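Incident review: delayed structure delivery

Summary: a single-chain prediction request sat in the queue longer than the usual turnaround. Root cause was a stuck worker, restarted by the on-call engineer. No data loss occurred. The affected request and its eventual output are reproduced below so the record is complete for anyone auditing the incident later.

Affected input:
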Amino acid sequence: MKLTVLASGPSGMPAYLEFKGKKYLIDCGITYRQLKLRLEQTRKKQ
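Output delivered after worker restart:
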């Protein structure tokens, strides 16, 4: 696994991840509070 943080700042922390031959670009771009709320809402829908 290879993880590279591309930037760090108030608007987000994009990262590049290579894992098991696949490549991912990760950028949340929202606050932890908003992320937690949205994940909880998603779980309720399932």
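Verification: The beta strands are 2-5, 15-19, 22-26.
Action items: add queue-age alerting; document worker restart procedure.
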